[in-house]
Amino acid sequence: MTTSVAASRTQADDYATVRTTVGSYRITAPFVRITGDERLSLLDQFLAKSAEFVEPDTVREALALNEDGSPFAVLLHFEIGDDSWLLPRTEVTAEELGAYLAELDLPAGVEIDVEPEGWGATAFEGPTAWSVASRFVDFDISGLTLHGVTEATLADDQAALAHLARVGTTGEYGYLLLTNAPETAHAAALAAVEEQGGAPVGPEGLARVQAEAGMGVFAAGFAGLSVAAADLSWMVDWERVGEFRGSDGLVKPTTETARVTALAAPADSRFAPGTEVTAAGRPAGTILWQAPSANPEEELVLALLDAPFWVPGLELAGLDEQSAERPLRTATLPRVIARSLTTRIA
């Protein structure tokens, strides 16, 4: 029996691909299309930042809350032509998203389509991702700025509708191709990725790069934490409290608030969720999630730490899955300097 190249790849391979070349992956989260002149009024009912000054042909990250003020989802909000599109960055099903949106007051003329038929997307990220993106536009790709969206062309399907957004999850160059010809787009993106020496990447290697970029919540979820404890307060427009769903339940963070913090651990350390973190034998917090082991230099863990232990550079400890005490150190994010910071878009 032979093993395909894709099947033989490890999460460490996928991690290295995103860090050094370009990796592609399908978007599996449910898209939502919102149409109608008053669609931004609908968005302002539940997004924690106002859509008032959102420009056409742009994309931004936004936070949606539950009625009690707890986080529901981190969403990408695209403004493309006369439509708004939403794409969850944190895990949520189409059914959950549809039920959430159904509870809003629908302005006259506004329509919501969850998972519009035929539409899908492919993403590609890495220091050479811009070269792949250049295949889908007829201008210098450096002209597409971060959070910009432009029309795209699929060479094998000139009639297809496609939009290219410069947005990512890893701190490396990132692009997302949204289209009504998703199979054609995925094949074209993958061919271009492989020409650059890249490859399709799986969720584990991708999750590790995301965690190092400060986006571990995309894979870890909210773990039942409040907005403040999940360190998502920066996604809230505190001047609009009372104007959007769940905002009456928000509590502003203080220096006494426990919060999610990244911890670096020795390579090959494994910690179970719920493990106590200690500082000189004193309880300091609880481990919530450990990123996949893909960076050979260290492990990366997310923990909820009490004040003042969430500051960078503190020496802590925790028992691993074999009940051996392992050192932990509070770490700043991003944890790794992205190669894209020193790689110019040619």
* Rg for CA atoms: 21 Å
Instruction: Give the proportion of residues in helices.
Output: 10-25%
Give the overall silhouette: globular
Physical arrangement of strands within the biggest beta sheet: 8-9-10-7-1-11
What is the string of SSEs from the N terminus onward? HHEEHEEEHEEHEEEHEHHEEEEEE
Report the uncertain regions: 1-5
Mean pLDDT: 96
What is the fourth-level CATH superfamily of the largest domain?
A: Probable tRNA modification gtpase trme, domain 1
Total domain units:
2
The level 1 CATH classification of the largest domain is: Alpha Beta
- State the secondary-structure class: alpha+beta
Could you tell me the number of beta strands?
Answer: 17
* CATH topology label of the largest domain: Gyrase A, domain 2
CATH architecture term of the largest domain: 2-Layer Sandwich
What is the helix tally?
A: 8
Calculate the terminal CA-CA distance, rounded to whole Å.
43 Å
Portion of residues in beta strands equals 25-35%
Largest sheet composition:
6 strands, mixed
Features:
346 residues; alpha+beta; Gyrase A, domain 2; Elongation Factor Tu (Ef-tu), domain 3; 6-stranded antiparallel beta barrel; globular; disordered N terminus
